[in-house]
Amino acid sequence: MELRVLIHAPRGRDAAVVKGVLEPQHVVEVCGESAQLAACLDEGAAAAILTEEALASEGLARTLAAWLGRQPSWSDFPFIVLATKQPGRRSAQAIALLHSLGNVILLERPLNAETLASAADAAVRARKRQYATRQHLEEIGSTRNEMELLNSELEARILDRTRELASANDRLMKEIAEREKAQAALTQGQKMEAIGRLTGGIAHDFNNLLHVVNMNLELISLYAKEEKVKPVVDRAKSAAKRGAKLTGQLLSFARSQSLLPKLTHVNALLVGMKDLLEISAGPGITVELELCDQRAAVVVDPSQLEMAVLNLAVNSRDAMSEGGVLKISICTESRTQDEAQLKRGDYVVVSVSDTGKGIPAALLSKVFDPFFTTKPMGSGTGLGLSQVYGFARQSGGLAFIRSEQGRGTTVDMYFPAAPANAQGASDPPPAPALPAVVKSRQILVVEDDPDVRRVICECLGLIGYSVAEAANGAEGLAAIAINKPDLLVVDYAMPDMTGAEVISKAREMVGDLPAILATGYADMAAVERLAGKPAILRKPFDINSLGAAVAFALEGVPEHEGV
Question: What pTM was computed for the model?
Answer without folding.
Answer: 0.45
